[in-house]
């Protein structure tokens, strides 16, 4: 089978999308030839049967220029492939639809987000099916084309440390884009209670991620001001953007992983932490029915989060969390399901 993948970025060092490099490696193992069209091309290390084509955003090519390049690539690639897998961006499905229809190729969209914009509604008309990780991860009213197949976590890479790690502080780890939807205020207010009211000083919060757009940069300044106001600077460390290839060490050393996301879809970083058997705390409703109640707190409830941290900060690793990910969200299994769907099996 020959497959075309269309995605935003091919860059193993990217802090947000670097994980997709591993997806491409897995695809390459299971197809004869893999063609990849990306908006932005950075550093990659892929097998010889993979060819990458960039729409040129990294070189400043305009959106009109990117659209023209996409059509040229499609005319060149479509006769050679059996199907198209589009990662996350409905607009690529819309832009690819006319030529895909002419060449009679199957097109599948992978989508995880709570928002239902016009682009997703239109893309649903263009694609053969939409694959997603959970019912909450794609909220289109028309469910006919939606199929839930779990997420894709590289469980061979993300696993507990072979030897138990010991530190003189409880390490609390959080990861994700620094944005209002990630609600870092609630975490900061919980730290304030732990340190300044309950006199728990032997904790360190590590936060991986960075703001991408101006509104997020302003939000980051707001968070730093709150940290200064609460006098907890010495207890919080911002790591900046961390490539997916370097995330393992932070999961393995963590006593707790905290996810404050309000996106409402299954969050990849929570599953990666679970694969490392790290106790997690989340307010994300997408994990209802997946996690025990001891791992939940209510959105914006910093007092409830504080109590949950106190209860879990000395807890052992929980291998049952890893078992959930291995059973339902293994990357290798996910790629097999996508290939099977593409072949109509």
User: What count of structural domains?
Assistant: 2
User: What radius of gyration results from the CA coordinates?
Assistant: 21 Å
What is the CATH class designation of the largest domain? Alpha Beta
Helix content: 25-40%
Q: Kindly identify the CATH topology of the largest domain.
A: Rossmann fold
Unreliable sequence segments: none
The largest sheet, given as strand count, sense and whether it forms a barrel, is:
7 strands, parallel
Q: What's the CATH architecture of the largest domain?
A: 3-Layer(aba) Sandwich
Give a structural overview.
The chain is α/β, with parallel strands linked by helices and 345 residues long. It has two domains: 2-152 and 330-342, Glycogen Phosphorylase B (Rossmann fold, 3-Layer(aba) Sandwich), CATH 3.40.50.2000; 170-326, Glycogen Phosphorylase B (Rossmann fold), CATH 3.40.50. It is 37% helix and 19% strand. The chain is built from eleven helices and twelve strands. The chain has helices spanning 20-30, 63-77, 90-103, 118-126, 184-197, 214-230, 248-253, 268-275, 302-312, 319-328, 331-342, and strands at residues 2-10, 33-41, 50-54, 83-87, 106-110, 129-132, 146-148, 170-175, 203-208, 236-240, 256-259, 280-282. Strands 3-2-1-4-5-6-7 form a seven-stranded parallel sheet, with helices on both faces. A five-stranded parallel sheet has the order 10-9-8-11-12, with helices on both faces. α5 packs parallel to α6 (214-230). It is elongated. The two termini are 13 Å apart. The model has no long low-confidence stretch (mean pLDDT 94).
